[in-house]
Design goal:
Elements: H1 3-27, H2 66-71, E1 77-78, E2 82-83, E3 87-89, H3 99-110, H4 115-129, H5 138-168, E4 174-176, H6 182-191, E5 195-197, E6 203-205, H7 207-223, E7 229-233, E8 236-240, H8 246-289
Parallel strand pairs: 3-4
Antiparallel strand pairs: 1-2, 5-6, 7-8
Helix pairs in contact: 1-4, 1-8, 3-5, 4-5, 5-7, 6-8, 7-8
Length: 293
């Protein structure tokens, strides 16, 4: 994936993140009442999500179905569109995912119908900017860019959410905090990029995210992205340098981690936004159904 495309893809998510943070900030004072439950430190193992013996799991208000809760995953969608299957709210006594479940939920999200227009959008921007010119232009160039974008996203999803979590016995899920001040929750969400929960409920450095995204960037850069070549143009010969460089790999790696950081912050506040939007719809419903006297 070219660095230009990765940076461009951060823009819509950054806007969504700004919307999420703004909405959550308006509700922040409510979470700092004197009688609020004790807060966990951001460095704790997935915060209050660590299983407690005999404690029933609490229901999620962000679209988690009964079947999904039993599997330890979700059927929620960020902003009613983007797959959010590895996020749990008020997890309670949730068992670890098996290797098969990790691969299953990642596959469900990676091949979700929303992903296809998303990668098509990113490929269109890449085509318009002529990023990675080695792919060329026209339908063939667009097809190559689409295939590369889809492969980039899918490889990273599987490495960070299924392959390494299974090998290292780490939990790929994000357990939303939902408590504390706005700043505390934001810090907690960002910390989950570097700290994760293990299958046994402990705390560990998030090798799955950091190493997995680095591996996916290297695989992407050095396998199917364009090599250097010379092409003929109307104005003469043109040398196109290779995208297979260490600098480009490092840039893509950093951009992927940045993208995942923004995403996880949105995930922390999305349930609050979801409830707020739902209450607004319920409040407007009686007014819409009221007949004139």
């Amino acid at each position: 994936m070219s660095i230009t495309i990765v940076e461009r893809s951060l823009l819509p998510l950054a806007l969504a993140c700004a919307f999420a943070l703004n909405s959550a900030a308006q509700d922040a004072p409510q979470s700092s009442k004197p009688d609020a439950a004790p807060q966990s430190a951001p460095g704790d193992s997935k915060q209050s999500s660590k299983p407690q013996p005999g404690t029933p799991s609490q229901s999620s208000s962000a679209g988690t179905s009964t079947d999904a809760k039993q599997e330890g995953t979700s059927k929620d969608r960020l902003f009613y569109a983007l797959p959010n299957f590895l996020t749990l709210e008020n997890a309670g006594n949730v068992p670890p995912l098996t290797t098969g479940q990790k691969f299953s939920v990642v596959a469900r999200g990676s091949f979700d119908y929303v992903q296809f227009p998303w990668y098509g959008f990113l490929s269109g921007i890449s085509q318009w900017e002529d990023s990675e010119p080695g792919f060329g232009q026209g339908a063939a160039g667009y097809g190559k860019r689409f295939a590369a974008s889809f492969a980039d996203g899918t490889i990273e999803n599987f490495l960070t959410g299924a392959v390494l979590p299974s090998l290292l016995r780490q939990d790929p899920r994000f357990f939303q905090s939902g408590k504390g001040s706005f700043g505390r929750r934001t810090g907690y969400a960002i910390s989950r990029i570097f700290v994760t929960r293990t299958d046994s409920g402990g705390t560990q450095f998030n090798y799955s995210e950091i190493v997995g995204s680095a591996l996916s960037a290297a695989i992407s850069t050095y396998s199917y992205h364009p090599r250097s070549k010379v092409v003929t143009t109307p104005t003469g010969l043109r040398f196109i340098p290779s995208d297979r460089t260490l600098k480009n790999t490092a840039s893509v790696w950093g951009s992927q981690v940045g993208y995942d950081t923004l995403t996880i912050v949105v995930k922390e506040f999305w349930p609050d936004i979801h409830r707020k939007l739902s209450k607004k719809k319920k409040a407007e419903a009686p007014q819409a159904g009221t007949s004139p006297q």
